[in-house]
Amino acid sequence: MTKRYVQCIIYLTLICCLFAQHAQAQFHFGSLTYDKGLSNSTVLSICRDNAGFLWIGTRDGLNRYDGNRIKQYRSDNSDVNTISTNNYIYTIVEHPRQKTLWIGTQQGLNIYQPKQDRFQRINFEHVRPKNSNHFAVLAIYFIESSVLLGTNNGLMCVKNADHPKIENVNILPGLEIYSLLQLGRNILIGTNRGLYLWRDQKTIEPIKLSHTNSSAISVKDIKRVATDKIWIATDGHGLFELDILFQQTAHYSGKTGLSSDYVRAIAIDKAKNIWVGTMEGANLLQPDGSQIQQIKSSANNPFSINDNSIKTIFIDRQGIVWMGTNFGGINYHHPSVYPFKVDLADGNFNHLSGNLVSAIAIDDDENTWVGTERDGLNLRKKGSDVYRKIELRSNTVKCLLTDDKYIYVGTFGAGLARISRQNTTDIRYYNITGENGITLLQNYISSINRDRLGNIWIGTGNKGLQMINSQFTTAIQPTSTFTKNTANNYIKHILASRNGNLFIGTAQGLGQLRNSTEQQGIYRSEDLLKDHYINTLFEDRTSQIWIGTQEKGLYNYNPKTGLVNRVELFPTHSYYHVLGIAENNANEIIISTNNGLVFYNKLTGAKRYMDIQDGFPTNEFLPNAIFCRDGQLLVGSHKGLISLDVSHHQSNEGVPKLLISGFSINGLSRTRVDKVLGYLNPDRAEEIALKHDQNTFTIDFSSDNLINPQKNSYAYKIEELEKEWNLTDQPSITYTNLSPGRYTLRLKTANNDGLWSNVSKSVVFNIAPPFYKSIWAYTGYTLLLMGIVYFFYRYNLDKKQLKTKLYYEEKLHHDQAALMQSKLDFFTKISHEIRTPLTLIHAPIEKILLDKRLDNQVDAQLQQVRRNIKRLLHLTQELLSFNKMDAQKLTLNKVAIDSTSYFENIHQSFVVIAEESGIGYVLDNQFEGSFMADPQQLEKVLLNLLSNAFKFRREHNPTVQLVIRQRNEDLFIHVMDNGQGIKREDRERIFDTFYQADAGKGKEGWGIGLSFAKELVELHQGNLYLDNPLQLGQQGGTVFTILLPACIRQHQGIPTEIISETSTTESTATCIPDSARDYQLLIVEDNDELRSFLLNHLQTCYNVSAAANGKEALAAISDSVPDMIITDIAMPQMDGYTLVKSIKADPDTAHIPVIMLTAKGEEQDSIIGYQSGIINYVTKPFNLQVLDLQIFNTISALELVKERNRRYLLLSKRDENISNAAATYLDKLRTMVEAHIAEAEFSVASLAENMGQSQSALLKKVKSLTGLSVAELIKDIRLSVAANLLIQSDQVASVAYSVGFNDRKYFSKEFKKKFGVNPTQYRENSLR
Q1: I want to staple 700 with a disulfide (CB 3.0 to 4.6 A). Which of 593, 594, 662, 1296 is the partner?
Q2: Of 701, 748, 739, 692, the residue nearest 720 (C-alpha)
């Protein structure tokens, strides 16, 4: 009995293990682990909220998963809006009405507010056990408006969920409450000390579980699995089933098929199946509990669960089963996901021989034949996972075909192999050698198929098509016409259709062979899809032909209509390869591509995809390596054989909803971004206001579809910028540098089966412009513009009025200015005209004074004439100075002035007038030092004031005083008279230009004296003003005061610059050298008297000629080039400036020095003269002695220049004072002479011709530069060269001839004249 019982137990165990293994193959689990972003691998609680986010509580932290990324929520003691702790998140439950999350932790209760993405911590200090450091909330259960909390200290209650406050209801204190279930008014309570019933929420009753000590049972979970069944999960005692009367009706444990007696979680899926999590794996039970399927972790299956220790199970509204494990994070599964496995070549004898699976076939006995590239043929018997390799001559299998007796294998290099299905060692080969009576075209067999007559059609690598009859006795090669009409000899695939036609896929199109006579097998050919590379062909149940191409996708051919249509498989891929085609059912075909598998519904056009994101080892499949039968799909890839059960696929019909899971702004911290969002959850934000510098941001989003979430796709657009949707599979978009404005971003999503959301999600972004572009700024700009317009309007109006008002004033001022200018012009012209006759008076007197033979009386009289001439010159200069003052060009020449002598001289100027007119004229100078001023300009001021004082004196007993006073370093000069004074109304304008007060008859003036005087004083940084006579002890009259500030020098002695009118001219004669008497001077002067005077004066020393203007001067120069020119400036026909420019522009005359002798005494005139090239500027009247010395110095300088030029020309000794122009000319001159030095006939005319000059111009130019004649110059150059040659040779005659001397005696004579010795002695002296 015991033996039989043991055998039975072993048998049942084996059955359970086999069943568990079979069940394991039906599940395909994904995972979320620590490495993928979970805060901890121990998962204690799971919840899916109303928005679609998955919440995961772990041993260390809370996590939120959106299908793409995991966000961790960490506790922060400094922020009360974070979760209270990271330790042990035991339970997460969503409030059914509030849609808030209630979270039980090691440190109490937290409520997550999804709108603000924040937590509310619920105070528990008043209910925490006194002997415990923590208050753990282990279970949460909502009952209407109240909430029951299972804690580590019994059952607690929150009576009003809207105003949460924990209250201790004193139910099962001291016990740990793990689970709660409401049954009517009764509450089942699972604790660490058994199961309890809170009957009518009034009394507590323990419920006894049979075969156990109920008080020792730890109840982990309670679920109502049916209307009359309640399941109790216990820790160590298995799974109990109770009826609605709380009576035990069943018990499941390890003995009855559960993976473990330590049961921790129970969940019911949409099919009413019950998922049970234990310490040793998960279990799937039928609703009635009749079958148990164990689900465990497997190291050989990457799609099994990560860890067998299951802590919690949650099934969401999509039917996804989420399992939290102890050490492996989360595993999840959905029934719609195809379960698959991959058979790999891993070196095991019973496994595949190679991973490059190139051909697949299943025979009538459901045995699987697998061909590989380079690794041979494999056979797997029905119901077995063991592969056996069939040895062939070639290990490269290209294609397979089965019939009721044989398996036909097309190989690369070994031709066609026919293997008996009954005896796999019975193999016959057919190849190009004619083995077994049939000769093939090629040993590379690329495709095999059988037509409905039983003939075997063989496609070769590049030899075209061949047919073997059904008896396998002969091989027929198609006729040349047939072959010619075939698209290409590179046969990729052969399809024999049900109606007897053959389709041949080649590298250059599709050939169709129509069967015209069934009995004889005669075909006629047609071509389709020319220039298409055909990979695969397939005929479905409705006789539609499906054509897979290289790069150009999938085509459908309808034999009835003859139409070929392209089928779009990938909307985002223009080019892709279709490698294999199979049929799942009447409506669905399966296509293998280089982008994974495509499940295509022929009726609706719907497409589903499986690829590497679903767990496939690769997306790359081999051509025609695909086979499907009875819902079992086999696909050959580069990484093994993939097997899928496609018989019971459940499409995802759930319409997805887009979720916004994150929002970030470039350069902003998380805290600042939260502030921008208004502390709202990004998914709840409908409008986001951004500043102008926050216009680069990123939006993270996801779908609420968590079934294969990696296959979700998304679309987005900004309505204001884009018309078309942008498709993407990336759950994030970034916009950069958006311009200010209002933008509406629309987002939508498609689930894993391509079903799009009905409604798009909208978020409005309102990007504010910078302040200078804001509405307030533009308002300000508008107001400012209006103000500017108004200002300009008022300005123009006022301007027009002012223009009208000032018109007459301006006219009056203009008239006065014109009058003033005319007066100034008159004064200037008069002054220039006066200077010339003064010169004619002054120059002869200067010449007479130079004669020492004059007696004293005559000399004194002439000195008096000389002084008055100078006085007249000062007057004319004053007129010119006033003109310069008006033009703001007058500058001061300040010197130290002795007060006593200077003011005495000023005083003496009016002594004679005072005596003759009976005027009391007094000089009162109490300052005896020196002061800084321009003596000439100050004299003009004082003379003007004294002249006015004398003019406007009193008729009876008139007095005039010149008073000088010192105050610190300031000098005060008072000019006072006792005349009639100045009227009050005239005092303010007395210093205005051209203003004249009513002074009485005979006392009128020009109105410029006082104005000019004031400006001169202001140039001294001083002031001239009308003073109060009473303050100076005067009873009436007029007082003008000159203030010269900080001008007094402190006891430094009398300087040499003292102005004195008593100086005399020394009678010194200018010594004229004899050499200068040959110099020719040209005088250019339009005044006949002055021209004659200069001519008479200078011709005693020089050769002098004269011209009346510049034009005559140029004519004279062209006839005879002078050595020097003395010219006036203001002349008729051509002035002096133009004359000088013309002279300097001509290379033949540019060397002539020019002295300007003119009445224009202004600095600007002299600057213009010097800029034009003159060497001296002399103003009229002039001192004859000064003019003589200037001429003499110029001639001396010319002689020095000539000497330097001679040395340079003859000895090549360059002087830095020689001008570049002269050096260039002399170099050219010497080069020309040396070039013809041996020519005795080389003359002045020859040299002039070579120099490009006339003989006269050459003579003048050479004479002016060197002082030599041209003939002398040529001779001197010849002798200089001869002297150098004599040092090298003693042949005097030869040297003479080489330098152009035909007569040796004449050469010796001239040589001795130049060097003082004859040629022979010169050589001897040079060699010593």
Answers
A1: 662
A2: 739
Q: Give residue 993's pLDDT band: very low, low, confident or very high (50, 70, 90).
A: low
Residue 1202 vs residue 114, higher pLDDT: 114
Neighbouring residues of 717: CB distance < 8 A, sequence distance ≥ 6: 723, 724, 725, 726, 745, 746
Q: What is the pLDDT of residues 58-86, one digit of tens each?
A: 999 999 999 999 999 999 999 999 999 99
- Residue 933 CB neighbours (<10 A): 24
Please, are residues 67 and 81 in contact by the beta-carbon 8 Å criterion? no
What local confidence, expressed as pLDDT, does residue 37 receive? 94
Largest CA distance in the chain: 185
Domains parsed from the chain with CATH numbers: 345-574 (2.130.10.10), 658-773 (2.60.40.10), 775-890 (1.10.287), 891-1049 (3.30.565.10), 1074-1198 (3.40.50.2300), 1219-1327 (1.10.10.60)
- Please answer whether residues 212 and 199 qualify as being in contact, where contact means their C-beta atoms are separated by less than 8 angstroms: no
The contacts of residue 486 (CB under 8 Å, 6+ apart) are 464, 465, 478, 504, 506, 511, 525
Count of Cβ atoms closer than 10 Å to residue 285 Cβ: 22
- Around Cβ 1238, how many Cβ atoms within 10 Å? 14
Dist CA 238 CA 219 (whole Å): 10
Q: What residues does 297 pair with on adjacent strands?
A: none
Give the amino acid at 1231.
T
Residue 441 zone, left/alpha/beta (φ > 0; ψ -120 to 50; rest): alpha
The amino acid that residue 206 corresponds to is P
Tell me the C-alpha distance between 1265 and 1273, whole Å: 11
The vertex-836 CA angle with 830 and 837, nearest 5°, equals 95
Give the bridge partners for 196, in sequence order. Answer: 189, 206
What residues are paired with 733 via a beta bridge? 699
Beta bridge partners of 554: 548, 567
Contacts of 142 (CB under 8 A, 6+ apart): 93, 95, 96, 148, 161
- Listed in sequence order, the residues at least 6 apart from 561 whose beta carbon sits closer than 8 Å to its beta carbon are none
The DSSP code for 815 is H
Single-letter residue type at 458: I
Question: What SS3 state is found at 89?
Answer: strand
Rounded Cα distance between 220 and 190, Å, is 6
955, two tokens: 């008729």
What confidence tens digit (pLDDT) does each residue in 1173-1193 have? 888 888 876 777 778 888 888
- Integer Cα distance of 750 and 402 in angstroms: 43
Nearest to 68 by CA among 702, 707, 733, 752: 702
Report the run of H or E that residue 1142 belongs to, with start and end.
helix 1136-1145
Written as one letter, the residue type at 845 is I
pLDDT confidence bin for 21, thresholds 50/70/90? very low
Q: What is the mean pLDDT of the chain?
A: 84
Q: What pLDDT band is residue 20 in, cutting at 50, 70 and 90?
A: very low
CA–CA separation, 357 and 642 (whole Å): 10
| Phi (first) and psi of residue 643, to 5 degrees | -115, 130
* Tokens at 824, concatenated: 């100034």
Instruction: Give residue 954's pLDDT.
Output: 78
CB-based contacts of 1243, cutoff 8 Å, min separation 6: 1271, 1274
Task: Copy the structure tokens of residue 339.
Answer: 């379960």
SS3 1281: helix
Q: Are strands 1080-1084 and 1124-1127 parallel, antiparallel or unpaired?
A: parallel
Give me 1250's structure tokens: 């070579």
DSSP 444: B
Beta-carbon neighbour count of residue 963 at 10 Å?
19
Spatial distance between the Cα atoms of 107 and 136, rounded to a whole number of angstroms: 6
Peptide bond before residue 559 is cis, with ω within 30 degrees of 0: no
Look at residues 588, 583, 607 and name the one whose alpha carbon lies nearest to residue 752: 607
